[in-house]
Structure formats: structure tokens, C-alpha cells
Amino acid sequence: MSDMSAQVRRALDVAVEAIGGKPREGQIEMAEAVANALTDRHHLMVQAGTGTGKSLAYLIPGIVHGRKVLVATATLALQRQLVDRDLPAVVPALEKELGREISYAIYKGVGNYVCLQKMNSEDIDPDTELVMEVSSLEKDAKRLIAWAKTPGVSGDRDDAPEVDRRVWAANSTSGRECVGADVCAFGSQCFAANAKAKAQTADIVVTNHTLLAIEIVDSHPILPERDCVILDEAHEFMDRATQAVTDELTSNRVLRAAAMARKFMPGKLSDAFHKAANDFHESMVDYGEDVKTDPTSQGRLEEIPQSLEFSIRKVMESSKAIVQFLSADDEIIDTDALAERARVKGAVNEIATTASTLLKMGDGLVLWYEPTFSTLYPVSYTHLTLPTIYSV
């Protein structure tokens, strides 16, 4: 047994003892295999049954080696288990055994955190208007705002009081619509930015399949630098990855973006987009009625239905015109206005990009229509054949 393997075995014994467990042969075998993979820098794929203790079997070798480890899980439940239960239970004992501090953090998308800028903005966007119109949501909104103002809270949705999804939408934003901490007036307090900063320096970062898939497909680093990637629940990765990189076009998304644009920049451009959005909505309603009588009009489609193509093209053209206008408008100085523009531009650009993709049918794309939520999905063949990752 090598010195490193012996260290991993001792550390595993310490961790198991810390949680009141007993040694398990399968866990020991897996931990040694992971340790060898880290030492020799080779890929490893492990299949282990329930009760093996997989989490400790891959966490302990990473900690002992002192490598920057990224763990990607399929479910939020496993993320929380690792960060809230497994790691807190064993890290103090491992720090004493190894004689050094061990840090860990969770890394999620921006939409999983309260957006302080949006929460404190005087501008009323469509998400906030909806909450204000439904009186029963006011109590939820007040509870969420009070929690976000409490010193020391994470801003993480999993830690927040349970509120209606519409209240959460009114007080959070997507990565596409975020202005960025460097520009935002609340940048220094930003929950998402602070969580990201903590993750950049942590020894172990726990994230999800979705963010890892986006990074792979877009070839753009969004996750912290790491020496090793551990893909837990790996059998779920292909499905999660396909979901993550699949665009979708729905009437509600288009109408929301049009309402945001019209409020931020009233005029001919936003009026044209608003009309295109309403026309698209009506076309989708009519198409949905047709599908009820013709089941072959759902699922995979060989081409865009003629009844939808014209309205999709108008949505694309009008949304692109707004994006071009907003991209050229660099005279805004007020941080609230900058944040509002970023939200509008992000929402409208997402529509423009998806509509444009839909109109490229036949160029390595397949189209799906899902009738339950009346949704169009353009899916690239490349999204269906992601790079193979051999992992734990």
C-alpha cells in the first residue's frame, strides 16, 4: 500500500468514526480506486450499490490529496446533503487528522438567490406587477423581504422561507438578465456574487449537472477552477445536460419579454415586439387546438408548421431590433437603470436567439412540440451527443 493510500485509509476511518459508522469493504475499495485515479490522473467510472457510502468514498481521497475538487450532482437534495450534512459531520475530524483547514462551498445559478437590486428597485416589472395584483401573495412577499434583510442569511432559495413561485420570480433574476456585481449598486452585498466568491477559493465545491453541462456545451468557464471533477449520479447526466442546453419558446416567455421592453423603452420598437408577441400567442393557441384533433402535430416535427412560421419570424425580427438598440445605448449611468436594461436585454435576447434557432430547421436541428405547456423546443444534434465524461 502506498503512503497516499495509507493516508486515505486512515482519513476514511476517522471520517466514518466521526459519523458513528462502521468500515465497509465496498467503501474502502472505492476510496482506494479514487485515490489511485487522483494520483495517476486517470479517469474512473464507479458503479456502487446503495449503502456503499459513496459520498465519503470520493470526498475523502480528494481532501487528502489537497486537490481542488468539483462535485456535480443531479439533484438539489444531494447537494444539500453533501454541504449541510456529510461535510460538516466529517470535516472537523479530518482537519485534526490532516493538520490543516478544509473549506467547502455550494455553487448554484444566479436564479437560486434573492436579487437585492430587483427586490429594492422602484421600477415595477411584469413579475412584480403580478405579485401586486394578487393580494394573497403580499404576505409571502413581505416574509421574503424581511428574511433577505436579516444579517447573515445566504439569500439561497433553499434557506429562504417557503413562498409562492411568483413571489420568488419577482425577487430573483436569471444569469442572462443579471447586470453583474461590478456594475450593480448592490454588488458588494449580492448573495449570488458572494456565494461565487466563496466557491472560488474552496477546497471542495458542490454544484449541479446543469451548470457543468452548460460549461461543456458553451465551452465557457462558469465554474471555479478545479483539479478534479466528480460526477455523482452520473447515470442522470445525459438527461440533465440535454434539458439544460435545450432552448424553449412559449407564449408566456415572449409576452413577458415584450411587456418588459414596452415598460422600459416605450415606442415603435417595443410596440412592434408587443404586437408580434400577441400574434405569436394567438398562433400557438390555434396550433394547440389543431393538435387536439391531429396527434401527429406534436412530438418531433420535420419542419416548422406554416401557421407558426410567420409569427415566429416577426418575433425574431422585432426582438433583434430591440437587442440592437439596447446594445448601442451606452449613455445610461444610473445603476438602477443599468440593471433594468440588463434584465430587459437578457429576456429579449433569449427570445431572439431561440426564435432564430427555430428558423434554422434542417441545419443540424430537430424541433419538438410539447402540447401540455404549448412549448416549442429546438434541439441541436450536438446537444444530444455531449462529450463522454468518465467519472465517479
For the structure shown, list the relevant keywords.
392 residues, alpha/beta, Rossmann fold, Four Helix Bundle (Hemerythrin (Met), subunit A), 3 domains, 4-stranded parallel β-sheet, 3-stranded antiparallel β-sheet, 16 helices, 7 strands, globular, disordered C terminus
Provide structural commentary.
The strands form two sheets. A four-stranded parallel sheet has the order 2-3-1-4, with helices on both faces. A three-stranded antiparallel sheet has the order 5-6-7. The chain folds into three domains: 3-103 and 202-243, 3-Layer(aba) Sandwich (Rossmann fold), CATH 3.40.50; 110-191, no CATH class; 251-383, Four Helix Bundle (Hemerythrin (Met), subunit A) (Up-down Bundle), CATH 1.20.120. Helix 10 packs across helix 11 (237-244) and helix 12 (251-264) packs antiparallel against helix 15. Helices cover 55% and strands 8% of the residues. By secondary structure, the protein is an alpha/beta fold. The protein contains 16 helices and seven strands. The two termini are 22 Å apart.
Mean pLDDT across all residues, rounded?
Answer: 87
Structural class: alpha/beta
The CATH topology of the largest domain corresponds to: Rossmann fold
CATH architecture of the largest domain: 3-Layer(aba) Sandwich
The gist of it:
The chain has three domains: 3-103 and 202-243, Rossmann fold (3-Layer(aba) Sandwich), CATH 3.40.50.300; 110-191, no CATH class; 251-383, Four Helix Bundle (Hemerythrin (Met), subunit A) (Up-down Bundle). It is 55% helix and 8% strand.
